[in-house]
Amino acid sequence: MAHQALWSGRFREPLAAIALKFSSSIDLDRLLYQEDITGSIAHVEMLASAKVLTGAEARRIRTALKTIQKEIESGKFDLSSDFEDVHMAIEHRLIQKLGPLGGKLHTGRSRNDQVALDERLYLRGAIREISRLLVNLQRVLLYKAEKYFGVVMPGYTHLQRAQPVMLSHHLLAYVSMLERDFERLQQCHKRLNKSPLGAAAFAGTTFPIDRNLVAKKLHFDGIVENSIDAVSDRDYIIEFISACSITMMHLSRFAEEIVIWSSAEFGFAHTSDAYSTGSSIMPQKKNPDMAELVRGKTGRVYGALMNVLTMMKGLPLAYNRDMQEDKLPLFDTVHTTRQSVYMFAHLLVHTSFDKQRMAEELRTDFLAATDMADYLVRKGMPFRDAHEVTGKVVSYCVSHKMYFGNLDLDTLRHFSPTFGPDIFDFILPMSSVEQKQSAGSTSPQEVKKQIVHWTKVLGKRRV
Fold it and tell me: Catalytic amino acids?
């Protein structure tokens, strides 16, 4: 059943059915019903404080709004597409319950500042939830770093084997990345945590409202000072989706490694059957689909960012109806990022790493070549000469189908008399990592420092 629009006084004919369907956002913004009612209660309490409403009127409206919330949650009140948006639906229901008194709720505000408020309240909750999930993922990574401490693996650049690193060091790199993701969300929260309510349509209101009182009631840090800015920008949404895009990029990179490491060609990682899938035609297959889906969903969040940026780029001040289109990318970003971080933590819990396979791959390659060159430098040879000598040793091994472990001292001295018996203490994989001395390196001592640091940081963190 169609409902008369609450703004219809100026119009001589109702909105066409297809126009209502095209312009309605309630299928999406119904998700904001809690935030809308919370904001409305704070608004009506402020109106009573400012003597715009009586205390009795405010109490009746507040009680009715709480009843409407229960009706929505129980399914008694259907937020159907007959309404233009969730704000109009709730206000319409309020007027049904209270008559003309329900129409007083909207005194001193507009849907423009109302929706901006709802979105900020929604985003605060989303940031808290995603932040908690990020911290949990960091803790899983830290647990794995402790569990596999001492395991050495091939480190890569250009997806080519480069130098030995501790597996723990590799995992802790993602803890650091996720820490910056966490910080970006906290910074985003700080910037968005200002109340736009009271800006009305964009010019403010003639009623003696107290914007700061509403902000305090809703636990904001203050108000958006300029009323035009309060309703006409969505940079807080853009910043949030941007932060989520970077988070998804980090997850996608790790997901790619899980996919590669799970292959028979690598064999570094093994994921539980409960987090893998099979093939409809190839019985032998075990596919890393959860990691692949995280990698794939990254594109959705990137797309959401471009969506909102493009929507906003040509809009003159102040509010424009185009901005209604921020809901789908916002809600999809929250859902996708939340799901992906949650799933990735579970995926890692149920993934093991193959110590023996990594050791074998280290043995049959030249990952300690840099350490060989560094050895020669410490013996007094210029680095460029040491680099060339080591390169010739590698070329010799490749042509003779052998590795550093097959070399003897006489063969090495053929390339340079600088080599001494102690060279073999430097070119073994574990020796390579143990020789590292710089802060933040892959040496066991430095990795242990990182583990201690993150144990303290994550142990104290409350989100």
Answer: 158, 279
